[in-house]
Design a protein that fits this description.
The chain is an alpha/beta fold. The chain has ten helices and five strands, in the order βαβαβαβαβαααααα. The two termini are 14 Å apart.
């Protein structure tokens, strides 16, 4: 039986399929793992999941799958969050975001939450964790100072997650005096062209880890 992988927002099913032959499903929600137990796969991959507007996948159902001998691999988004919490039970975590949750650099679900199109699964907002990584890159490249980078993250953190986007973040930076108006388009252009999509990077690592476990 193919591995079952819950994703779609961090990485598209079509692109993921080029990396790993799997049964790709919508972002995981409460009871999805439990429903698999009637005919369980050997491996479950959790990348994306629902957060605040619907009931998130419960810790208990993942633990039940692990106790049944199923390998569960997580990273990138909901998978990273649950893997950091359930590592003592045997869940395998991979990727930078997982490590950041594990080491308490990140703590809130809000860091990886996005809103997405229900049909295409395309993200309609920017995750805070991507903004963190992107402003770090902007600092390295001399686009932002360390103080400006920290201020951009703080501005983004205060925005409700479905409303986070680089255009509004840049405008708010001007309003707060973090950058001057003449730098607005330059900063937005940097965000648009150089976003560090760490969620997608980690999603690839989840798929590669599952592939490794299958061999």
């Amino acid at each position: 039986m193919k591995p079952v992988v819950y994703t779609g927002t961090s990485i598209s099913h079509s692109y993921a399929g080029k990396i790993l032959d799997a049964d790709y499903r919508m972002p995981v929600k409460r009871h999805d793992i439990r429903r698999l137990m009637t005919a369980p796969p050997e491996i479950i991959g959790i990348i994306d999941g629902v957060f605040f507007d619907r009931a998130a996948v419960a810790h208990r159902e993942i633990i039940e799958a692990l106790k049944a001998g199923i390998t569960v691999v997580g990273g990138a988004s909901m998978g990273a969050l649950r893997a950091s919490e359930l590592e003592p039970y045997g869940m395998i975590g991979v990727g930078k975001i997982y490590e950041m949750y594990k080491n308490k650099i990140l703590e809130s679900d809000d860091e990886v939450a996005v809103t997405f199109d229900a049909e295409t699964l395309e993200p309609l907002s920017v995750p805070l964790v991507n903004v963190r990584m992107t402003v770090e890159q902007a600092q390295v490249m001399g686009i932002l100072t360390k103080e400006q980078a920290s201020a951009v993250v703080e501005i983004t953190r205060k925005v409700f997650y479905p409303e986070r986007n680089y255009r509004d973040i840049t405008s708010e930076c001007v309003k707060k005096g973090i950058i001057v108006d003449s730098e607005k388009e330059r900063l937005f252009d940097f965000f648009r062209k150089h976003e560090v999509d760490v969620k997608r990077q980690d999603a690839v690592l989840v798929l590669e880890k599952i592939k490794e476990l299958l061999n």
